[in-house]
Every structure is written in structure tokens, then in C-alpha cells.
# Entry
Amino acid sequence: MQCPQCHSQTVKSSVGWLCLECGALAAGADAAAPPETAAKAAAAPPQPDKPQTAAADKPVPATAPAAALSAAQPAAHAGPVVPLKPHRRRWLVLGLAAAVLVLGAGALYVAAAQKPFQDYQHKLSAAQNASFSGRLQFSGDSFLSAMNSDMEFEGSYDRSVASKPKGELGFKGTWGKQNYDGQARLDDGSLYFKLGGPLLPVIRYRQSNLLYPLSADWHKTKLDQSLFDNYCQPGPSAKPAGLSLYRLSRQVKTQNSPWVNLWESLEGRRVAHYRGTVDSGSVPELIDGLNRELPAGCGLAFTGADFKSLKISYDLWTSPDWDRLRVQGEDDALGARFTLTLDSQGYGQAKVAAPPPAVDLNQLGHHHLELLARDTARRGHIDQLKAALAAYRQANRSRYPANLSALVPKHLPQIPVDPKTKQPYAYAPDRTRRAYTLSARLEEPNAGVYSVKGP
# Structure
């Protein structure tokens, strides 16, 4: 409607019509209503008087029309506050509680994924005894295929007497495409071991030039300085500090995955399955650290730079009485892969067998070493004669010679003799000369006679 005074546009408020130009305020809606509106209002039946509100009696200053409008007219977006109904309040509380539970479960889930290795290591270190078994597999491409290996092992340990830990280990399988087997025992601070295979290691006697080729017998050595002296090449006599090696092992960091299966079933057991990776930079640091700490001549044949492309992941399955750790590594640059699986169980129940009689490497003197060297030569001579006899038989209608001198010069340049007595070895063909026995008496205590038979 228009203002009755200045004929300008007015705005309706809760107390009447307000002119935005002169500030005039009409008392009612019919103050300046059009004729048709006024006629309708006159024809309407009379209404009882309504009491005016306090806001209607309050004058509005003519000089402040905007202020009067803002005071007299409520904000356009304001409205009545509607309280939530009781059932809606319950759903809101339940929703908030569910969100808190989800967030709490997620926090526990992530926390559980961050400490699998710590709990696993604690279980192994806290157990007084346990048994274990596993498998080590290696495969490579190109020239590394010559190192393809597949070894199975099993053993146990006993730490019930802290000052005298015990343990045993047995293994068999292929290493570098060759069949090997062996056993080892740890008892009273000494290592007992027995190896079998085509190529056995050579022990260096107290960093001297005297070498002792290991045989397929039980040997014994103290786990002290002498172990390094017997293995390392001549050089400064020193062994790595145990604390330094422990610090190096602590540098290997794992990055645990947040995805954990706490209700997995494996081989009929209910287990928790964790997975993760090993920090790629910590392995080269460990290898370089070992090369720094190991004595001269005992260093590794490689450096950390050789493994800069190595990627290692792990899977850990745990239960109260059985655990499995599987470590997998892959080096794309070298074209090599390995898998190590370790099962541990029998916590608090495993037993370790007593060590057998063995040759003590620490008690070998020069005399004993010379004795062992002569026995090694005798075994080599017998094997050499056996090959020459086989060649003679093939060339002489499946018959062996009447004596060893018949092997010279076609099959041997000369006949080997005993390194001490300088006598020929005992050779005895049968009547038909289609079979024989060849033997050498050894000097090593309880070694007896080394003999072969043909064909």
C-alpha cells in the first residue's frame, strides 16, 4: 500500500504499515487501504476488540525508519524452535554411541596391528623351552639358478638353566642343487655338529696355515674366541661384541599392515593373521654393520649395496600354543627370491637330547693335525685307486688286475702309497678277479679301516 502522507511505498510490520521515506506508521491495515478493500472491511461483521500488544503502543522514531523496521519486524530466517520428539532423541543417542564404538574398535584394531612382532618375540623369549620346524627355499634366474636350494629343518631349545642354554637342530635337503644333511647341538657352552654332503668346510687351526678338512663325524668347539680363530683367515684375533650385534638386529624395522584377521583358521587352528613389510633400508644397514663388527677374514662375501633392491614381506599367524612366521623376499634386479617358514610350538614342553661323543677342535695339536692330514690323504688315495680299477675292468673284459702295478702307466702315472709307512695299500682280488677289496688303516683314534669293494 502507499503512504497516506507522502504516497511512497510502505512495508507491513507487526505493528502496522511503515513508510520507508517519511517514517510514518499507519495504525491499522485499513488506514490507507484501496476502496474495494475498505468496502469489504465495512461489510464484515463487527469483531470484538482485541487488546493491543506492548509492541503496538511503542512509538517508532520517524528519523530512523530502518532501525524501527528491524526492531518491529522479526528476522526473515527466524522461526519457532521445535523440540525433538522422544523417539528421535533416542535414535540420535544410539547413533552417537555407535560412532564412538566404531572409532574405538578401529583404534584397537590399528593398535593390534602395530605390535604383532613384539608379542611374538616376547613369547619366544619368555618361553623356557619350545620346539620349532621350518623350510628355507631359494630360487634364482640365470647364473643364480645354480644356487637353487630347498632345505627343511627342525629342532628345539631349552633355557630352563639361564647360564647353560641348550638346543638342537637337524636339517636336510638340497643346497646349491647338492644334497646335504646335518645335525647340531648346543650344550654347556659348546657347539656339537655333524655335516654330510659332497663339499664340507675346512677348519683353520687357530689362524695358522694348518687346515683340517671336516669329515662326516661329530665335532665339538667352544662358543668363544676359538670359534672365530678356527674359522677366520689369519688376522687380528677378535670376535664381535654381543651387544653390538644386538643393536644391529634392533635396526631392522617392520612396517605392520593395519589389515588384521583375528579369526582366521589355519591347519585346523584358530589364529590371528598379521602381515607387513620390512623396511627396505634397514637390511643393507644390517649387512654393512655386520661387516664392520665381524673379525678380519670373517666378513660377509657381499655388502649392503648388493641388496638395495631387496623387498621383504612377512605373514605372522599366532595362537596361544602355536605360531607360524613366513618371510618372503624378492630382488627384481638380481632375479632372486626366497621364502623362510618357521613354526614354533610346544612351549614349556620341548626336550633337548644330550650331545654325542665328538672330536674337540680346540684340542687339536700339530701332531693331531698331521695325523688327520695323513688320514685325509689315505682316503683320497683309495678313491683314486678305485677309479683306476674301474677303468681297467672296463678295458679287460670285466676283470680286475692281479696286482695294483698293472694300473701303471695306462690308468695311473704311479701307484700311491701310505703317507707314513710308504707301503702300498692292501689290495685283494677274488679268484675270478671279478671282485676285489681295497683298504687303508687310519691313524685317527677309533677311525679303524677305510675300505672299498668292487665292482
Observations:
- The chain has three domains: 10-72, 111-361, 365-454.
- Residues 365-454 form one domain.
- Residues 100 and 106 are 10 Å apart (CA to CA).
- Confidence is low (pLDDT under 50) at residues 28-44, 48-82.
